[in-house]
Amino acid sequence: MKATAGTDAALIVRNARLVDGSVVRLVIEQGRYAAVIDEGDDAGLPEPDGVPVIDAQGHLVTESFVNGHLHLDKVYTLPMAGDAGLAAYTAGSMGGAMTSIELASAVKRSYDRSWIEPHVRRALEAAVRHGTLHVQAFVDVDTTAGLIGMEAVLAVRHEYRDLVDVQVVAFPQDGLLRDDGAAELCEEALRRGADVVGGIPWIEHTDADAEAHVEWACALAAQTGRRVAMLVDDAGDPSLRTTAMLAEAMLRHGLVGRGVACHARALQLYPQPTLLRLIGLARRAGLGFVSDPHTGPLHLPVREFLEAGLPVALGQDDIEDAYYPFGRHNMLEVAFLAAHLLGFLSGPEQRWLLELVTCRAAAVLGLDGHRIAVGNPANLCIHHDERLVDVLREHAAPRYVVRDGVVVAASESGGWVRGVRDGCGR
Ligand SMILES: [Zn+2]
Fold first, then answer.
1. What domain count does the chain have?
2. Residue where one domain finishes, among candidates 364, 398, 421
3. pLDDT (tens digit, 9 = 90+) per residue, 24-59?
4. Which domain holds residue 179?
5. What is the pLDDT of residues 264-277, one digit of tens each?
6. Cα of 224 to ligand 1 centre, how many Å?
7. CA of 24 to the centre of ligand 1 (A)
8. What is the CATH number of the domain that holds 76?
9. Which of 17, 61, 231, 330 could connect to 200 by a Cys-Cys bridge, CB 3.0–4.6 Å?
């Protein structure tokens, strides 16, 4: 998996406050961290001529953000889909999740690259502005959408290749056994440039069909040297078991550490012994998880998974589509919402939130070397505030976003002017 492109970029970031409180100088050469030096060590801090310098002014500098899961072909389609799916997806027990998938599917009958591509561009622009430089994007590939959404996403990904890394998942949203022909279309999508084998086994009509669905995906991933990412157990039903099926198939096919389970909301309803067995199995399989607590009433038991040391990421999941009306591709906003929904409010829990959208999320996607450390690619955000609590509270676009040592976005803090009374409609 491509982590970052090589560049010749050199940059120095002075007075960068890392999340551990240390204030350092980041020396970047050829797009990577060449040195991380304590600013207190003023003897011989290198500052070669001609290298651009940014003074972070003691404000927080973090790794760039990682979005573990997004339905990129569907962004901004809510006006076409209507609100009925929203109500079905977020209803108390989530029994209506299947209904909302069927309602959302109607949009795909009018799929056309001419309107999908501008939507995808808008979502990737928003990503870069907010410092989200790695995205795992699910793209529907089925007998309704065909390869139209996939072609649109692959084309726009190419346009944005110097700004953001998009891992594209060929996703048979309507099932495989339920949708005859979807498997062949997914295989074709991989040949055309999709990176990851997708799946949604819980949607099949029987457990045997769900097993066959998982088996197809993991066998294909093993054969073609790909990763696998699935949407599992996404309804309020504690009898759903496709997360375990995925972990078992990864072990069978030699895919340890190369699989991701998204949503997995049913796990919140599992009896504790069942959950603990699954956590043990997931650890053996190296299965990563992505949770999007802002999109519905149930979510993965994130705290238990973090305490067990499993790789977990947060995902934006949706941007104004049939399942969720908001979303700015701002992972700090996603983390802020998760703080409330997961009850992650203390200082150590705020650090967890940051990890869930930076380094732990990178581990879920199989990206190596995401942390700010010598030798790693220089993908970072320079924020407007010194403390993590303020950065989370404001969830503002970073002051600077740096990719491979190159500034790719800059934002002012947004000012407030006192005493302006005109134009308030009074
Ligand atoms: Zn999703």
1. 2
2. 364
3. 999 999 999 999 999 987 666 667 778 999 999 999
4. 65-364
5. 999 999 999 999 99
6. 24
7. 38
8. 3.20.20.140
9. 231
Kindly give the distance from the C-alpha atom of residue 340 to the centroid of ligand 1, in angstroms, as a whole number.
20
Residue 300 and residue 393 in one domain? no
- 28 CA to centre of ligand 1 in angstroms: 36
DSSP letter for 270, please: S
Query: Which CATH number goes with the domain that contains 396?
Result: 2.30.40.10
Burial environment of residue 43 by CB neighbours within 10 A (0 to 12, 13 to 18, 19 or more): exposed
Examine the domain organization and report whether 59 and 69 are in the same domain.
no
Q: What distance in angstroms lies between residue 325's CA and the mean position of ligand 1's atoms? A: 14
User: What is the CA(69)–ligand 1 centre distance, in A?
Assistant: 6
- Bridge partners of 55, per DSSP, are 14
How far is Cα 83 from Cα 411, in angstroms, rounded to an integer? 33
Q: Give 97's pLDDT tier (boundaries 50, 70, 90).
A: confident
Say which amino acid occupies 302: V
Phi-psi region of 46 (alpha: psi -120 to 50; beta: other; left: phi over 0): beta
